[in-house]
Every structure is written in structure tokens, then in C-alpha cells.
Specification:
single chain, 3-stranded parallel sheet, mainly alpha
Length: 202
């Protein structure tokens, strides 16, 4: 759209309608500047509404800012930052690697070809099932079939519940079975009659 308006302004200037050309270019430039300012504030506003702030503040970083950082600065920013906007594929990969180097378990969501390196590097790569490209789906560990980020939170909650149930079951089964096993083992070593029969164990 921007290129069309610039071309329209150039066409008006070529045919001698300089006032119209100036108006078109002026409006286009003003809109571009307003859009740039609003877009730079949008990341922080979205993060605030979602409640993803740290210590009451939303720290948002753009790809241009990340490009100027070395690994040490990026590591500090990765811990502080909440929102990373307009980030290039290499920068996504750098962010994943930096977080992993600090011992973090990293999940990465993506839907396009540009997300593939970070999806592969992440501990859990999550691709969009509906809007995602086939390449992203192949690179991912998990497929989000409804393209809804809330499903990730629900899946994590369900997974934690399953994990807790497994731990509880193991805490019950191991001592009981361990006691039975040790009783049978000691009876065998001491050449005594088995105090517990297999039918009783079952």
C-alpha cells in the first residue's frame, strides 16, 4: 500500500500536479511515522493487557535492538524481557540458545519457514496446525491443532496433573513391592520357605 501511494504521488508530480503530489506524500509520511510510533508501543500494551509483566514493568525489545547486542547483553535481556517484537529468524535462534545456555527449558511457537531453526533448537517446538506451513509442522515436536495459545496452558496443566499422579502411584507401588521383593529374596537366601506366594502378591 505504501509503495502504491508513493507511486501515485510520483505520477501526480510527473503530470504537473505538484500540490496533489505533496499532499499524497505528506499524508503517506505522516501515516508511516504515526504507525511506527504506535507499533513500538503496541508490544508493551499487549503484554500489559495479558498480564505478562515482570516486577510490574513490561520490557519490550525489537529485532533492531537485539541485533546490536553481544551474547552477554542478550543473555541479560533474555531474562528481563517479556516481549520480543519484529525479530529476524537468526535472532529467534539466538534467543533460544541464550536461554538454553542459562539452563532454561525453552518452548518455541511458530508457523512459518522462518521459525524452523528456532523450532528445531528449542526443547519443545510447537507449530500451528491450522495456519502453519508444512515445513514448520515437520520441524516441531508438538502440533497446536486449534492455533489457540490457551491450549498450551491447558496442556501443561493436564501434563502436570498426570505427572503428579504417576509420582503418587510410584510412591505407593515401590515401597509395597519393594517390601514383598525383599521378603522373598531374604527367604530364598536363608533357604527358608517362601512366606508370600505369588498368588498372594497378585
Amino acid at each position: 500500500m505504501l509503495y502504491i501511494l508513493i507511486a501515485a504521488g510520483a505520477t501526480k508530480a510527473i503530470i504537473g500536479e505538484f500540490v496533489n503530489a505533496a499532499v499524497i506524500w505528506g499524508v503517506t509520511t505522516t501515516n508511516a511515522l504515526i504507525g511506527y510510533v504506535q507499533e513500538s508501543k503496541a508490544e508493551g500494551a499487549i503484554a500489559s493487557r495479558m498480564g505478562t509483566n515482570k516486577n510490574g514493568a513490561v520490557k519490550a525489545f525489537t529485532g533492531a535492538q537485539i541485533a546490536k547486542m553481544d551474547q552477554r547483553e542478550l543473555a541479560a535481556v533474555a531474562e528481563e524481557g517479556v516481549v520480543f517484537a519484529r525479530v529476524a529468524p537468526k535472532q529467534k535462534l539466538r534467543l533460544v540458545e541464550v536461554l538454553q545456555s542459562r539452563g532454561e527449558i525453552v518452548a518455541m511457537t511458530g508457523d512459518g519457514v522462518n521459525d524452523v531453526p528456532a523450532l528445531k533448537q528449542a526443547d519443545i517446538g510447537i507449530a500451528m496446525g491450522g495456519a502453519g506451513t508444512e515445513v514448520a509442522k515437520e520441524a516441531a515436536d508438538m502440533l497446536l491443532t486449534d492455533d489457540n495459545f490457551a491450549s498450551i496452558a491447558a496442556a501443561v496443566k493436564e501434563g502436570r496433573a498426570v505427572y503428579k499422579n504417576i509420582v503418587k502411584a510410584m510412591c505407593f507401588i515401590l515401597p509395597v513391592n519393594g517390601g514383598e521383593s525383599m521378603t522373598i529374596l531374604l527367604s530364598t537366601l536363608l533357604a527358608r520357605d517362601l512366606p508370600i506366594l505369588s498368588l498372594q502378591i497378585l
